[in-house]
Write a structure and sequence with these properties.
Blueprint: H1 3-14, E1 19-23, E2 26-30, E3 41-42, H2 51-64, E4 71-74, H3 78-85, E5 89-90, E6 99-105, E7 115-117, H4 122-128, H5 134-141, E8 146-151, E9 155-162, E10 165-173, H6 182-196, E11 201-207, H7 211-219, E12 223-232
Parallel strand pairs: 3-4, 10-11
Antiparallel strand pairs: 1-2, 2-3, 4-12, 5-12, 6-11, 6-12, 7-8, 8-9, 9-10
Length: 233
């Protein structure tokens, strides 16, 4: 298994969709429209059928589950080239951004702040998404080994350990409390939690237009591993 496929599969396991069906080595995912990652076909590996049939299967799966058809493709890959040749193009209407970077780095370190909960509290949910839907409760509230970082009234982050990798997501700080080091300190708390549970490295996925977040993560030692994009027919 190549390094990109292995990392994408770990990220997918850390972000479980409500429905996750296999098409060969592809994964067709649906979760009520909550995030592109949980509502797209992860196209690493071989679908086991000709490309036109694979793309028709993605479209039929999306229709059954009430979501827009989308292919999650590694940028620059042969699979991306073939899907684009079939008439699919960048999902410019994707609300979170059609292109994301996958960053890898060390477990966050430094002076910690806050606590890491075994289960999301009502206060955690409020800062993370507001009143959660069933899909949000599933995607964010399930996974192999979860930790929910929380600074009271200020910030949240979600961590999920898959094998020895900490998947970091949903980092959010109240706007009026940003640029005060809260995010770094909460990340340090999550890093310590993960280290105690056997994690050795970390990964996160962020839209390429989110320059503020990327700057924070680069300051913590993260670098780009690869990029992926969402394509639609």
């Amino acid at each position: 298994m190549d390094a990109i496929t292995e990392l994408e599969l770990r990220c997918a396991d850390a972000w479980p969709a409500l429905v996750d069906e296999r098409l060969g080595q592809w994964r067709l995912r649906a979760a009520g429209g909550f995030t592109g990652r949980a509502n797209s076909a992860l196209t690493t590996g071989d679908p086991g059928v000709p490309m036109p049939e694979a793309l028709a299967t993605i479209a039929a799966f999306a229709a059954r589950h009430g979501i827009k058809p989308a292919a999650h493709v590694t940028q620059g890959s042969e699979t991306e080239r073939r899907i684009r040749e079939a008439g699919w193009s960048l999902a410019e209407d994707h609300p979170g951004g059609a292109v994301a970077t996958v960053l890898t780095g060390p477990l966050p370190d430094g002076e910690p702040q806050g606590e890491v909960l075994d289960k999301p509290s009502p206060q955690w949910w409020e800062l993370a998404v507001g009143e959660p839907t069933a899909a949000q409760r599933h995607v964010l509230g399930t996974g192999p080994l979860l930790g929910f970082g929380y600074v009271e009234g200020a910030a949240v982050v979600r961590g999920c350990i898959v094998d020895s990798t900490l998947h970091i997501s949903r980092l959010s700080v109240r706007p009026e409390l940003r640029r005060q080091g809260t995010a770094r300190r909460l990340m340090a708390a999550l890093g310590a939690w993960a280290r105690d549970r056997g994690a050795r490295d970390a990964v996160l996925q962020v839209a390429v237009h989110n320059e503020a977040a990327i700057g924070l993560y680069e300051g913590l030692g993260f670098t780009e591993h690869h990029r992926y994009a969402y394509l639609r027919p």
